[in-house]
């Protein structure tokens, strides 16, 4: 795995997706929703974006913004479903 911003974002995104129940939890071998955990990883990606302002290429900026936007949409969808239970 390359050691760059995209790799870090993908690592955090994978963890967010596991916690959102979009990917099987490798330990439990099943999908499990943990909104608090997913929110933590989404927040970490946001912090990474904030701390790298002015140091990202245009492509990196677009990538991290799209990842955050997509994760937030999935999070809100899952949160709404959980609140209806």
Write a compact overview of the structure shown:
By secondary structure, the chain is mostly helical. The chain has helices spanning 5-19, 35-51, 58-84.
Descriptive notes:
- The chain has 85 residues and is mainly α.
- The protein has one domain (5-84).
- The protein has 3 helices and no strands.
- It has helices at 5-19, 35-51, 58-84.
- Helix 1 (5-19) runs antiparallel to helix 2 and helix 1 (5-19) packs parallel to helix 3.
Helix/strand layout:
Blueprint: H1 5-19, H2 35-51, H3 58-84
Compute the average pLDDT. Answer: 95
Structural class: mainly alpha
Approximate strand percentage:
under 5%
Distance linking N and C termini: 40 Å
Number of strands: 0
Order of helices and strands: HHH
The percent range for helix content is 55-70%
Q: How would you describe the shape?
A: globular
Count of the separate structural domains: 1
Radius of gyration: 14 Å
How many helix segments?
3
Low-confidence stretches: none
Biggest sheet architecture: none
What are the salient characteristics of this protein?
85 residues; mainly alpha; 69% helix; 0% strand; 3 helices; globular
């Amino acid at each position: 795995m390359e050691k760059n911003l995209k790799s870090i974002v993908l690592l955090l995104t994978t963890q967010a997706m596991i916690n959102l129940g979009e990917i099987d939890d490798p330990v439990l071998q099943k999908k499990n929703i943990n909104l608090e955990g997913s929110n933590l990883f989404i927040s970490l990606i946001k912090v990474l974006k904030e701390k790298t302002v002015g140091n990202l290429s245009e492509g990196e900026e677009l990538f991290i913004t799209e990842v955050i936007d997509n994760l937030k949409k999935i999070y809100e969808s899952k949160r709404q479903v959980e609140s209806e239970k």
